[in-house]
Amino acid sequence: MRYLPKSPADRTAMLKDIGVATIDDLFAPIPAEYRLNRDLKVPRQMAESEIVDWFRERSRENGENHASFLGAGAYNHYRPVIIDSLISRGEFLTAYTPYQAEISQGTLQSIFEFQSMICELTGMEVANASMYDGSTAAAEAVMMAVRLTGRRSVAVARSVHPEYREVLATYAFHQGMPLATLPFADNGGLDLRSLEDAITTDTACLLVQSPNFFGVLEDVEALAEIAHRKGAMLVVSIAEAVSLGIVEPPRQADVIAMEAQSFGVPLTFGGPYCGVIATREAYVRQMPGRLVGQTTDRSGKRGFVLTLATREQHIRREKATSNICTNQALIALMANIFMTIYGKVGLKELARHNLAKAVYAIEQFGKHANVLFAGTPRFNEFVIQTSEDPYSINSRLLGHKIVGGLPLKKFYPELGNASLWCCTETSTRSMIDTAVGLVAESERSMNGTREENVEEVTR
Amino acid sequence: MSYPTDFKYTKEHEWIKPDGGNATIGITHYAQESLGDIVFVDLPKPGAELTAGKTFGSVESVKAVSDLYAPASGTVTEVNGDLTTAPEKINQDAHGAWMLKMKLKNPGELNALLSSADYEKFVAEQGGH
Amino acid sequence: MPTHMTRKATRHVNQNEGLIFEKSSPGKAAWKLPPLDVPEVNTSTLLGSQERKDLGQMPEVSEIEIIRHFTRLSTWNYAIDLGMYPLGSCTMKYNPRVNEVVSRLEGIANGHPYQPEKISQGALRIIKTLSDCLLEITGMDAITLQPAAGAHGEFTGLLMVRAHHESKGSPRKKVLIPDSAHGTNPATAAMVGYAVENLKSNAKGMVDIPSLQAQMNEDVAALMLTNPNTLGVFEQEIHKVADILHAKGGLLYMDGANMNALVGKVRPGDFGVDVMHLNLHKTFSTPHGGGGPGSGPVAVRRALEPFLPKPVPVSKPDGTLAFDYDRPQSVGRVRSFYGNSGMFIRALAYILANGPDGLRQTTEDAVLNANYIRKALEGIFDLPYSSPSMHEVVLSDKVQAKKGARTMDIAKRLIDYGFHPYTTAFPLIVPGAMMIEPTESESKEELDLFIEAMKSIAEEVHEDAEVVKTAPHSTRVTRLDETAAARKPILRWKPESQEPTAKSQ
Questions:
Q1: B8-107 carries CATH number 2.40.50.100
Q2: A82-339 belongs to which CATH class?
Q3: What is the tens place of the pLDDT at every residue in C149-168?
Q4: In this complex, do C190 and A296 lie within 8 Å of one another by their Cβ atoms?
Q5: Is omega for the bond preceding C388 within 30 degrees of 0, making it cis?
Q6: ipTM for this model
Q7: Which of A430, C59, C268, C465 is spaced 20 to 30 Å from A407 by Cα?
Q8: Cβ C267 vs Cβ C261: under 8 Å
């Protein structure tokens, strides 16, 4: 086996040194009746070239070379090549949690920079070293608000990513926390009138997403005012991190739960991604996840360490803020490098390109289909309503190697034939025009058919 | 280390200094020494009710958390805010760095606690760990 | 300063490097966007008061500076690629590079989680094939790959335990956890709403059967057991443990952190386990990446299958694969999409590279390596439990502590000898624990160097403990002031927050 660095002679010599006759003697503690005396039924050992071939085949079955308009919590942004050059360095790739600070300063300093940039972008005072993803970050942020307020129930906007809400429901259910789901208004944002009544003296927090699942920016200032007036916290989830380049961050929030996948993380069928929690300094001791802090060594030289670890499971055990241990460090490093590449000016330009592409697409689609919540400020996603079933439209688009928007029937049946589309800087004008053309064609034929039928009747 | 004779002590290493119907509490020199450098103290707010023998807060070193147990029942009247910004004061002078003042519910409870001599003896027995 | 010589490590020059913010100046850039092929937009009109005007202190640097910055930082890290990383319970094995290559193939890396199933067959096939392999390896009946890490797997597994009991009328009240367990176990039980009850270990470091018998009743939902346990000892009476639990309707949860000792030799499903999680980043070679990402699949017995998180991958009559969302008894979702798919690819590539013979040999070598170290070091370091070791060995600093050198000091001194330290001060039942897990990835030569280093450090402690107590001496920073870091936390860079006392690097 090519990963194992021992010759048969090495093994024999080592067994001899240990003082046993065969390797099976070392497995003697396992009761004989449970020992497996056959080969595992897994595929036979493959050569490296065979492994590559096997996965190439899977890659071909997986929509290679398609243009995509999918977003909905996983975004297709261009990934600068140096991200992979740098994270492939063995010193980053094959190290573990920086428990031994003296030989982990590379990881520690980079996390410190990551925390700093997340704070800068979100307008918060502290950020952790990462959570699993945006959905679990949102759930953990809500748990944090529950601990901080001593209240039990949670209000969630229906315009939060449906899968994030499902994850929160899983976390909350077994804690016996009541969840109230709040409707969206005609403008696609949280219905403010329903909010007033929904927040009670037992509401720990309100969870919203901005830009929300429909791409619409929530009125965070107004939401914060209402929540805070009633003693509840405001937790804001951000699923499309690139929006922070051009959209004012939710500074009025108490906790921000973010998904940083947009920052240079490949889609890879849904993960690994990079959740982050950012909050105010006063709440740091209720924050889950690892934190890196600056300090000095014995000679006064600047260095970095894992800190405030008493919040965590390995010390506080059943009283810990969370059970999280392994996080998404390497993915956070991708995001860190991405943020460094684009920086102060580039992130803004990148976000502007995303917005411009979406605005163009909305205008074009708007000529042939109904764009929902059209007048509300948004970022790079939008909902279109068609006459034809979006699944049928998507089947036709697929024939042109285009992946259309996400049909929303499963999540929002009341929106009818609606689908959620996303444009990023990678969406070219010709790709948008082609997709619009195909949707227009089907809309014309649907409407045309209807008109013909009408004519037939009248004739 | 000498333990003040006008204090009473618990086996969980808190001290309590009675003053009529009121009292001041903190942790002992032995406790701070076993904990090492204290980095954070979590204390209740004035008005909180303490029950003898129950936890009322915690002290943290870099890699450990220890619960604090109330030596007596009563109501918190004052909290030493200095400890929030300078928890090291407990390491420097555990018997001077008081944590909170309280109004005792039943001053008689203190009779059940250890005297300084008893506590010193108790600590000496603990020495091995 | 070092009194003894090391054959493995030598000092070499590495570069100083400040924080990226300190290299920033206006006008530098590492990015370039293509010309906008759609009309320009007026962002103020579009976004109104929500328009962001300024990105504050975000850096402005060039590409070469970024390359040098992160490359320099990387050289300050120790890593598996540099040498033995015997961090007990973390299974720091070789991370094969073909795994990285196949996970970056176009259709795989760019696969969107919501793209139609028709063009997701590759990703689904990977999920299905890996699931089948893991079921065969564990001997269990059903599996979910959705949990993002081991602790997340524990959470998912216990949710299923809870759902199972609820379906029988009551969720039950508590979970039994041995005193040797990982901190994630009690933390997870609390998150799922269970009270934690400690279970004592016996003199051999195993579950104390009489205590279990006494503590087991109808309030106990499950026992969370690591096997081999955190002492590296196989629970020889595992069948009794399972029987005691099952007799009162309880379930046996196995923390699979130490599965590297078992793959191909014994299957948890065969010895009575009802629910277990695996750590793909431990046993199945996906990279640890400085602390993640992980992946924590949960495998269960048939009776628990209805409770798996949704969606569940299924085969359709036409041979294609799909996700089934119609799972009325499911515990729900524990993560968005389907989990850390990128780790599934890597774990499967590892299994394919090994095959049944390679997986078995891997386990045998892991156990061989741990026992080789144990044999060489027992007598020099205290061995608190003499029960046979599997893939890791737990020693203690009892002998060296008499000279004032504790487990952390010896660990720090190992750094000077060119090794990553073992896990210190865990499990909690061993005072001054030194938990050593070499994994199968170490050659005899590397093991001999490690043994030599440990012996040399023991001698140093005997001759002059000071050199050990003040170690490491060869790193770019000496021991860092963790107390100051915790008392006055500095958790982000700010232009004004630079400590005046801190020398720039």
A1: yes
A2: alpha beta
A3: 999 999 999 999 999 999 99
A4: no
A5: no
A6: 0.96
A7: A430
A8: no
